[in-house]
Amino acid sequence: MAGHFLPLRRAAxxxxxxxxxxQRARRIRFLIGTALLALVCLMIALLDHRLGDAAAPAxxxxxxxLGAGFGGMNYHDLDPTPPRKLAMxxxxxxxxxxxxxxHSVLGLPFLMLLxxxxxxxxxxxxxxxxxxxxxxxxxxxxxxxxxxxxxxxLGGILGTALDRLHGAGDWWRVLAILLGLGLAPALFLSLLAxxxxxxxxxxxxxxxxxxxxxxxxxxxxxxxxGGTLPAAVRLGVGAATxxxxxxxxxxWARRQHAFALHSEWRKPGLALGIFDRFRATPAGAVAAxxxxxxxRDPRYQVLLAGIIAxxxxxxxxxxFVGVDPRVLATIPxxxxxxxxxxxxxxxxxxxxxxxxxxxxxxxxxxSDRLGRATPALIVGGFVIVAGTLMTAxxxxxxxxxxxxxxxxxxxxxxxxxxxxxxxxxxxxAVARPGxxxxxxxxxxxxxxxPIALAGAVLCLIIATPSIACSVLGVMNNSWVFHVCGFGxxxxxxxxxxxxxxxxxxxxxxRRTSEIMSFASTL
Length: 522
What we know:
Order of helices and strands: HHHHHHHHHHHHHHHHHHHHH
Transmembrane segments: 28-47, 54-75, 101-122, 134-159, 171-191, 203-225, 231-252, 302-321, 327-344, 373-395, 407-430, 451-473, 479-501
Helix content: over 70%
Shape: globular
Organism: Pseudoclavibacter albus
Radius of gyration: 26 Å
Distance between the termini: 52 Å
Protein name: ABC transporter permease
Keywords: Membrane, Transmembrane, Transmembrane helix
Number of strands: 0
């Protein structure tokens, strides 16, 4: 029997991931969600010995609430009772809203949440010396669990709304890319952040304990250390957040109910998705198309996955040989920023024969260079902001994080500017559109290899003044050097970016024949 069942099961799993399977998208979302959940669990495990009494349950509550919202948004099509479906059964707006919400407590996810909440209350209650702590624990768990359930329902409605938008898949990919790039610095810095007395830095603990999603879970700790008033205020913050979420859900669910019954839910006559978000200029069209490449082309997706993983590969050996954790904590953000912008150094080759559209349309070289650099600048800016905030929070050194942001800005601007020149000057062959992203054409790189290497070295030279200011700031314990490093990084990055775009545009215009000849041989 097993000999027949196992091959059938294997064939079913293979068919579920086939390109023609209607379940393929759902399976892929499940695998991505599982990977992100494993990443978050790893981060919590790495931070467990650093969390204080208030920060540990607050962090778990924040992650549970945000995770429920993301899960509801991603798997909303599995919900059997959304308000829009109940509207078709003749239920009124109010009743469909109540039935849809009450259905959330009739499944395995809510049972797991309930068990986790009970374990939290019992564990913390047995460790508490005051019997009144049980009341604060129970109140915080009830409010926190309510926020988790409401977040899942709000996520489901948001996911339904996104699916009805033209180009919704592109926005899902944007969210996945930003989430992956945002979690990467957090994970690396959580692993390598220097130990501090009392666990996690006090500022991070305070932010988590007073955050809207974490406050109710930290009410019992506030009662133990500060008395009744801090605990009551944190419960009040959680209760107010829950009320706001419930009101928002009720309004949105009624709106969805109305759209399901009337003709107000009409798509616009012409929607271009990502292209609607950019100006109708040559540079805007190239930027929108490049961003679509980043989200849809498997070759770019492989590059982005490598960029996310590479800092960990660099940091682990350095950590094992005993490099100071404070030094290691400054590495991920500049490395991620540089790699994101350095992707442009051969961006022209990924177009294949489509580059003839740029040449035959008479597009200016500056528009082509600026459009191609836009996605890297947008995503790189996000990485700099998110990574710098995480660096400052985990290392408790805002001045050092500021100079680190200057180094990253110099690398992003320098790499984007120099890549705009090298991609037009010396492109090299890559996998053709539709081929495996892991394949590489058997062709000589010619002068492209030394030119690309020289460009990377030049990027590091551009960031050297900011790096020197950061080192001087650490050695002298002076915030002046850190501020100077930040300013110098911004100025150098912006200058090299502007010059590189203009020079790269001129190179592109002068080498159109060579570029077309190169594209025809791919």
